[in-house]
Fold:
Amino acid sequence: MTHIFVYGTLMKGQPNHYRMFDKANGEAEFLASACTTQKYPLVIATQFNVPFLLNDPGQGHHIQGEIYRVDQRMLKFLDEFEDMYQRTLVQLEVKGTQSRADGGEERLEPGNLTEAYGYTKVQYPPEWRSLPTYERYDTSGDHGLRYVTREERGSRI
Ligand code: PCA
Structure:
């Protein structure tokens, strides 16, 4: 089992969330909401309005997202689905948790410091650094940059 930090279209209420709960892709379980202990620039870029956490700590915001426990199959699916990112370890502070009694050793409590893998952008065009940055991604936010789904694109980037 691996802990994954999602901050973009994979979050609850966002356009790719359902993919984590498609049993054909493997298993995923929500563990907690969390925010990054370091600041990062979270930008929306490309003609498809894709969110990217730029792996450039110290600038931007403490990014809000969600921690999931995933099995090997789901990890493999996500690595392939998020192939324009690099999976990197991100340091996190736990915010809210699920109200379950049986978290066992996996249990995360608000205030805990932990780490999980996030899909971040290590190399990116320099002009992305001048884009507006966000603390929490929402495809329907005031920015008006609605995410264009893979299905809507016709072809993958
Ligand atoms: N999907 C991944 C990375 C950005 C995105 O849209 C996520 O939600 O964390």
